[in-house]
Amino acid sequence: MDINQFIKSSFGQWRSQRSAHHLIFSHFEAVQSVIDIVGLAPDDPAVLALCQNNDIDPQRIASPFRMSWEGESDWNEDQNEELKGTTVLVPVPDLSFPNRGKLLRDQGYAETMPAVGDYHLTDDGTFVLLTQYERAAAEEKIWFVNPNLRFRISMIKSSDGVGVITASFSSEIRSLKS
Predict the structure, then answer these.
(1) Spatial CA neighbour of 109 closest among 70, 81, 140, 151
(2) Distance in angstroms (rounded) separating the CA atoms of residues 37 and 49
(3) How far, in Å, CA of 113 to CA of 75, rounded?
(4) Closest among 87, 70, 79, 65 to 15, alpha carbons compared
């Protein structure tokens, strides 16, 4: 599987159930959300802006997309806060190693700021993303069990990459339209 196949396989609406363990707070969190993943044209203004901000030639990119999410967490049961957001993601494959590259995001996972991560795809089709932020590091892995079920694990680590702050597991089921 290459990056284009992986992203195309991810298009659609997904229902996600995430279990997160916030080790620093000794707290367990359950999150249910809906995730929408849609393809973007390489000449979409948001894609071009992300390329320009990172000095990337738009001719080098592969399968840009937008991911939006909306969900609920049980972190504070009194408020039952709704979580939502959107981000544009632009893969930039390595010219020498096509299953490796950079992933540009206008909003990161561990910190809500633009981010650039390093990705690679394993032989079994697992997408692995490592992102270094100012105050943290994130490691994410996503793989398909079948075309309509995928799993995701994430770890947020201290900025030196040694201490684990948060570990989570998500099961994501594609919403099938009748």
Answers:
(1) 140
(2) 19
(3) 23
(4) 70
CA 1 to centroid of chain Cα atoms: 18
Cβ 147 vs Cβ 11: under 8 Å = no
- What's the whole-model pTM score? 0.91
Q: CA-CA distances (angstroms) from residue 60 to 49, 91, 94, 97, 160?
A: 14, 9, 9, 13, 31
Q: Which of 94, 85, 68 is nearest to 11 (CA)?
A: 68
Contacts (Cβ under 8 Å, ≥6 apart) of 123: none
Cα separation of 69 and 66, whole Å?
Answer: 10
Q: CA 65, 68, 74, 76 torsion: positive or negative?
A: positive
Residue 24 DSSP label: G
147-162 pLDDT per residue, tens = 999 999 999 998 777 7
Domains along the chain with CATH numbers: 3-174 (2.40.128.20)
Q: Is 80 helix (H, G, I), strand (E, B) or coil?
A: coil
Q: Is 9 or 107 the better-scoring residue by pLDDT?
A: 9
